[in-house]
Specification:
The protein is mainly beta. Helices cover 8% and strands 44% of the residues. The chain is built from two helices and 18 strands. The protein has helices at 3-18, 101-104; strands at 27-32, 38-40, 43-49, 54-60, 65-70, 74-77, 80-87, 90-96, 106-111, 119-126, 131-135, 141-145, 148-154, 157-165, 171-175, 188-192, 200-204, 238-243.
């Protein structure tokens, strides 16, 4: 498969994922719970933390049924799907609704044209003992180990991209650039292929993609660290969510 065909297959898969029935565009609410039962908009019953790392729903239906959710458990109530979302020592109940207006209006992801010129050679430097502070869109901060830095040249200027590893062990970055806020969403995510044994690598900005919070403001995405904010425009990858009427 050639470069453009490979990119188009990736883009098609991204649109399919984003607009899926219970994909990111369907996230209706993120509800932070305490041990005292309380109502959650759009779903029946009362919801609270169980005290053992789970969430309990009570007074469900005419018979007052009770359910408990832990870890990757999900529950369907009508068309809505409930999931547990952990964050440090906190737990939230997330509600996904395929009938959310933004999901029903989702019609695609606008992108720049694929361009091999945005496959940029880089040199990887491992930094196993360093951490970086990420600030999330809601202002909460957390420390994350740095996997390394990728050094590359952008418009004749030496740059570096700080990368971390996700839960699957793959390299990724959060970055901002000169297109944000007018040509593209306010920041983007970027997967990075594993460098070669000699440290050589390629940063493919064509694979820059929108964070989940571009599809629903109920996601809590990390913002780019200062080291990953570039003043130069990077006109590659995904630009914005497209909504129909």
């Amino acid at each position: 498969m050639g470069f453009e065909d490979d990119w188009r297959a990736w883009h098609t898969a991204r649109e399919r994922y984003a607009g899926a029935e219970y994909g990111p565009a369907s996230l209706e609410s993120t509800n932070w719970l305490i041990t005292i039962p309380s109502a959650v908009d759009g779903i029946p019953g009362l919801w609270a933390l169980t005290g053992d790392g789970g969430i309990r729903g009570s007074e469900l239906g005419l018979e007052g049924a009770t359910v408990a959710l832990h870890g990757a458990d999900t529950l369907r109530l009508g068309r809505r799907e409930l999931r547990v979302f952990p964050r440090d020592e906190l737990l939230a109940l997330r509600v996904f609704n395929p009938a959310r207006p933004q999901r029903e209006r989702f019609s695609g992801i606008d992108t720049y044209r694929p361009d091999e010129g945005w496959r940029v050679p880089a040199e990887f430097e491992s930094t196993p003992d360093e951490t970086v502070t990420f600030t999330s869109v809601d202002g909460r901060q957390h420390q994350s180990p740095i996997a390394g830095r990728l050094r590359f040249t952008l418009r004749g200027k030496e740059q570096q991209l700080t990368v971390t590893r996700n839960s699957a062990g793959a390299l990724n970055a959060v970055f901002g650039d000169g297109t944000n806020g007018h040509e593209t969403y306010r920041f983007r995510f970027l997967p990075v292929d594993e460098p070669a044994a000699d440290g050589s690598a390629v940063i493919d900005f064509n694979r820059a993609y929108l964070p989940p919070c571009a599809f629903s403001d109920q996601f809590i995405c990390p913002l780019p660290p200062d080291a990953n904010r570039f003043s130069a425009p990077i006109r590659a990858g995904e630009r914005a969510v497209v909504l129909g009427r």
